[in-house]
Amino acid sequence: MTDSSALDAEDRKIVTLARSARARNGVPEGAAVRDETGRTYVAGTVALESLRLSALRTAVAMAVASGARSLEAAAVVSGAEEVPAEDLAAVRDLGGAGTPVHLAGPDGQLRRTVSAT
Fold it and tell me: CB neighbours of 65 closer than 8 A, spacing ≥ 6?
């Protein structure tokens, strides 16, 4: 397990926002992304009969819809041990291959940071 205090203040903030979205909405995942201007976009899992999106893909879509041109960082709070390849691809599409994606558990403890490669 990685210590969340190793993250800078802005990355801790998006982990906290992702955790809050998960808890507030009672969904399996919460996510937050930060764009090139410092704006954040927060989302939870979307599970409709006709539409299913992970929290991270939803947050990326919100950023794109709001005019973001790139991403500085992303965070996911989930019970999963890995960030799915489809989620990393969405981050890579907007942020580039080197964009860090922080994965934290439901308790907010950072599990790992991966690049959106």
Answer: none
Percent of the chain with pLDDT over 70: 96
At residue 6, the pLDDT reads 81
Which of helix, strand or coil describes residue 10? Answer: helix
Distance CA 55, CA 27 (A): 9
Please tell me the predicted confidence (pLDDT) of residue 73.
98
When divided into structural domains, the chain yields a total of: 1
- For the cut 60, the answer to whether the pLDDT of residue 1 exceeds it is no
Rounded CA separation 85/13 (Å): 24
8 A C-beta contact, residue 77 and residue 14: no
The whole domain housing 64 covers: 4-115
Where does the pLDDT of residue 56 fall: very low under 50, low under 70, confident under 90, or very high at 90 and above? very high
Query: In 3D, which of 48, 49, 73 has the Cα closest to residue 60?
Result: 73
CATH number at 68 reads 3.40.140.10
